[in-house]
Design brief:
Layout lengths: L1 H4 L10 H32 L2 H61 L6
Length: about 120
């Protein structure tokens, strides 16, 4: 956009009258540009249906809420599965320890005096 590309004028600190004229010219040009752009895009702005845009934004928001709920559900299921896997791992460790204890008892029963 030309308005944003036009920098303000360089000012001369020694001559306030020239500065005033430069600033006045810059503001005048800027206002003319703003007026031109408003006139140019007025038809486009009028063609925007604010109610339709608001409805679409509400639909998008509802979809995002649903997506967030679904994501929370997935996280909950994942946490449940993680808990179940942790419990299974602890159960497997307990079973391994119990099996090692049984093997030790069997060895003791086979060799009651500790003989090879």
């Amino acid at each position: 956009m030309q308005l944003l590309q036009t920098p303000p004028p360089k000012l001369d600190h020694a001559d306030p009258q020239v500065n005033f004229a430069k600033v006045q010219q810059y503001l005048q040009t800027t206002m003319e540009t703003v007026d031109f752009l408003l006139a140019k895009y007025a038809g486009s702005l009028k063609a925007v249906d604010a109610d339709s845009v608001a409805r679409k934004l509400q639909q998008l928001e509802a979809r995002l809420v649903t997506l967030d709920r679904d994501l929370t559900g997935v996280k909950n299921v994942q946490n449940t599965h993680t808990g179940q896997l942790d419990a299974l791992e602890q159960g497997a460790e307990s079973a391994q320890t119990a099996l090692a204890d049984h093997e030790d008892r069997l060895k003791q029963l086979e060799n009651p005096g500790g003989e090879p």
